[in-house]
Write a structure and sequence with these properties.
eight-stranded parallel β-sheet, six-stranded mixed β-sheet, binds zinc ion, 15 helices, globular, TIM Barrel, Urease, subunit C, domain 1, 2 domains, alpha/beta
Length: 475
């Protein structure tokens, strides 16, 4: 059997909790795409070796919320200082019709390359660029691009059957689909791509873009029933800003999470991006039903949405994962930047609530709100759990060999660390990958992806941005 040995790691975080969050290693053996041993291992004759001296090893990240087409919409001046609702009109909606197959493929490639180079092995993309008469299929392109790089990929099939404005007033690219068309495409995608295996490379998820705005309640209920009948998970946006609370109060006389309860959109097969603004009742309900969160701290900061109550959700029983969200609202859409922000922002959130002793408060607090081990667990095991990839997300014998190996010997930001294990998360910045493995296959080696010419990609991106700007529509 052809085996691979990763040797001499400085530190290993496993993605597990408690004492098991770290293992001494320093070696990991892989055969047939799985981890077969962790410990002090002796190289075998003919075995391939990856030298992990001066390296820290984490499980490859699992990104549970993204919009890859936005990778060519970074830093749009019209949207750079806008909150969510005006930003939607100024940036992503304005550019919907500007994409064709070529620009869409390039955007997907840029986003996936950026993620892979940060140590991400699994990507769930919430793809909602669908409208009647569009002349390319983004879902097929996304699966092709992920496969070309060797990444696991979950297509969350977005879309809408209603819009906030009168349909006749809208440009073609903002018009909704019918429910029949939506469900027929879900079935097509599931038949073509969905693999229910615990280490699947391809998954399909049912994901209307935003429950209060994208479909009628009876349609959302039907969509949930169809998804469950096919064994597909459910995903969407929820409670990103306070405007969700206004919308569901106004339309349904309920909180956003209570509204989702009424349409059968809670459960361990459902996860929502953001969940920033929640009341106590909603947190308890999400926890009791095992409904998950894709925590997107950088996008939530960029759009001034707020900081999600991740600790309270986890304490209530809700699975926690990390998503980078689309690059039109996160100009650092890589997993290292995202987990660095998650680590800092959970602490800042608790610190914000601290009150001086003389005013009756508890004094300083909050520095244990998120440890590096917590953040690694959320970004790896948590994401795999939410996607139902039960053999992915932790470094344990028998699990899929999805492994990120970070070199700490080529960037002064890591020099002087007393506990190298925390370096990639605590020090942040650009990752230096010695290797990234997905299912035991090396897809990044010494910071490079085979077949990806970064100069060519940069040139194509500059050209595509000009093309998209010339095509943008006034909404
Ligand atoms: Zn999003």
């Amino acid at each position: 059997m052809n085996t691979l040995l990763i040797t001499n790691a400085t530190a290993i975080l496993t993605g597990l909790s408690g004492e098991a969050a770290r293992t001494a290693g320093p070696d990991i053996r892989i055969a047939d795409g799985r981890i077969t041993a962790i410990g002090a291992l002796t190289p075998q004759r003919g075995e391939s070796i990856i030298d992990a001296s001066d390296c820290v090893i984490y499980p490859a990240w699992v990104n549970t919320h993204h919009h890859l087409f936005q990778s060519l919409l970074k830093g749009d001046p019209l949207g750079i200082n806008a909150t969510l609702t005006p930003w939607l009109g100024k940036t992503p909606y304005r550019y919907r019709s500007a994409f064709d197959a070529e620009t869409f493929r390039l955007a997907a490639r840029i986003g996936l390359v950026e993620l892979a180079l940060s140590g991400c092995g699994t990507v769930a993309d919430h793809h909602y660029l669908y409208y009647p008469g569009m002349n390319f299929d983004g879902g097929d392109i996304l699966f092709e691009e992920a496969e070309a790089l060797g990444l696991r990929f979950a297509l969350c099939r977005g879309g809408a059957t209603i819009t906030r404005q009168l349909e006749a007033d809208l440009p073609q690219a903002l018009r909704p689909e019918t429910l029949d068309v939506y469900l027929a495409d879900v079935e097509r995608l599931a038949n073509r791509y969905h693999d229910a295996a615990p280490d699947a490379m391809r998954r399909v998820v049912v994901a209307p873009t935003t429950p209060p705005h994208s479909m009628r309640p009876d349609e959302l209920r039907e969509v949930a029933a169809v998804a469950r009948g096919m064994g597909l998970r459910l995903h969407s946006h929820l409670s990103e800003t306070v405007s969700y609370q206004d919308a569901t109060q106004d339309k349904f006389k309920a909180s956003p999470v209570r509204f989702c309860e009424s349409i059968d959109w809670l459960g361990s097969d459902v996860w929502f991006a953001h969940l920033v603004h929640l009341d106590e009742d909603e947190i308890a309900l999400l926890g009791a039903t095992g409904t998950g969160i894709a925590h997107c701290p950088q996008s939530n900061g960029r759009l001034a949405s707020g900081i999600a109550p991740v600790r309270a959700l986890e304490a209530a029983g809700a699975p926690v994962s990390i998503g980078v969200d689309g690059a039109a609202s996160n100009e650092a859409a890589d997993m290292i930047s995202e987990v660095h922000a998650a680590w800092l922002m959970q602490r800042a959130k608790f610190g914000e609530r601290s009150t001086a002793l003389y005013r009756g408060g508890a004094g300083e607090q909050g520095a244990d709100a998120a440890t590096v081990e917590d953040v690694v667990r959320w970004g790896s095991a948590g994401g795999a759990r939410i996607l139902g990839l039960d053999d992915v997300g932790t470094l344990e014998v028998g699990k899929a060999a999805d492994i990120a190996i970070y070199a700490l010997d080529r960037d002064p930001r890591y020099f002087g660390l007393h506990d190298p294990a925390i370096g990639p998360v605590a020090s942040g910045g650009a990752a230096h990958l010695r290797a990234l493995l997905v299912g035991g296959r090396v897809i990044v080696r010494d910071g490079a992806l085979p077949g990806v010419d970064m100069g060519e990609l940069a040139h194509a991106a500059r050209h595509a941005v000009k093309t998209l700007m010339a095509r943008a529509e006034v909404v």
